[in-house]
């Protein structure tokens, strides 16, 4: 029992440490990357290449005055930023970052929660992210915040459907909801994004909408509705919302990479033991970094969707495409093309 | 260990369900119901049904209660005012609840209890569940699909604005 | 030591009793609805407990269907609340009494 507990603690340290480290790195990548794409230098005063900039931002958020408006609903107002971070930390717990380690006579899986319904648990916990938006908008006692919150949460739950259907299509040939089985399937056959390119496109677009990133960031855009649902938040609470957004981007990228790009595995390389665990973790981190770079790239390349265009895309385009993908994958699995489950 | 987890989440479920039925503000009631349903989902997993536990979080807390919150905010439901006669009604409600509970306990301990078999891999796995669902219970599954379709259509029709009579089109400038 | 099934059934009874007390005492339509959802979940807990005791999947399948029906009922019920609110500007069930004797 203590050995299992120790293994879980190590797993938690690795994954949570990773996801917390990503946030300042992403701040820097976002600002320098956007500057690169806009043909300007970006932050380059603090440290070489502006690398100390995220630290400066964090210090600024710490020392800024925390203004709490008087007429807000205090408990819900204080709960909403915490709820923004919670789903990301919970969902990262079902992502495997390496092959199972065999120490002595016990096999330890390299994931925080070795749940048989891993994929379903991820989707379930990710759907809890709506509450932070809704509560922030409601508790702020501000018409614009409420409207922004309603629009944001309507957007999130609409695209959750397409996301779930795309993920479901991946599970069909694998025959199991466990993410380690998904990775093993992709090691034995081909990476999932080749036969299920349609599902991958749906997943990509839906994950932009799930995390409120451009081109779907109408709810939090600077020029719309003042600032959307986080109008009344300042300093550390505002930083919590942004941390939550980056962390949910990371965990959703981790899921996408594990479902469609083979997770921690490299094609043709057989990883096992301690070396395999370390290499697996590095491979996963590299793939997630690639995904995050795509997030930043798309942000500065596309104009923003209007709200009705957004809802039309989610319900009238993505949902039928996801259903077609599901049927296609089911037919291919039954006819044996995609390998037996 | 299992007893500890059960006690913790059972107490959490009972406590937050009390908040659900007692608190005046409907938004707080809904958030307490979220906590209750989360605890019940944990108990489901403890009872060897992880699939149903995940579905509980996905469907109930992720969709149904969000719908509740939307409607509460749309209709701007405010705190309930309690009239003086509310005290008697609440006391009566508590008494009724206690009676219902007592009745259920009586029925529970009246029937003979069978010792539990250890949890099998087959019970927890989803393959067995899927085999039964799509084998023996395929017809109810399809009917529930139709039911959900009918519910969506009905909800859309019931909640939309009543159709306005057509306004006359104004003459356009040439 | 494993938790006996009767504990789960007692918990289910407690939740059901609390839910029924709430459904009968509240004046707000939405709060009544929340109490009804609580009662449905108490029933689900009892069904899963019995599925565990008898080692069969039937209880879990029934819970699946109950959840789907509860979702459908919630959607239609809330749509009806919106429609009633448009007419009467209130959801206080003491004031929506046009059909009462």
Shape of chain A: globular
Rough outline of chain B: extended
Mean pLDDT of chain B: 83
Question: Sheet with the most strands of chain A?
Answer: 2 strands, antiparallel
| Global structural class of chain A | mainly alpha
Task: Report the order of strands and helices of chain A.
Answer: HHHEEHHHHHHHH
Beta-strand proportion of chain B: under 5%
Structural class of chain B: mainly alpha
By DSSP, the count of extended strands of chain B is: 0
CATH architecture of the domain at 1-80 in chain B: Up-down Bundle
Q: Into which percentage range does the β-strand content of chain A fall?
A: under 5%
Q: Of all protein chain pairs, which has the greatest interface, and how many residues does each chain bring to it?
A: B-C, 82 and 69 residues
Q: Please name the CATH topology of the domain at 1-80 in chain B.
A: Four Helix Bundle (Hemerythrin (Met), subunit A)
The number of helices of chain B is 7
Mean pLDDT of chain A: 86
Question: How many domain units of chain A?
Answer: 1
Indicate the low-confidence ranges of chain A by residue numbers.
none
Span of the ends, CA to CA of chain A: 33 Å
Task: Please render the helix and strand layout as text.
The complex is a heterotrimer of chains A (341), B (174) and C (101).
Chain A: H1 2-37, H2 53-63, H3 74-91, E1 101-103, E2 106-108, H4 118-126, H5 130-139, H6 143-174, H7 179-188, H8 197-210, H9 235-260, H10 273-299, H11 307-334
Helix pairs in contact in A: 1-2, 1-9, 1-10, 2-9, 3-4, 3-5, 3-9, 5-6, 6-8, 6-11, 8-9, 8-11, 9-10
Chain B: H1 2-22, H2 26-46, H3 50-74, H4 86-110, H5 121-124, H6 126-135, H7 138-159
Helix pairs in contact in B: 1-2, 2-3
Chain C: H1 5-25, H2 29-54, H3 58-88
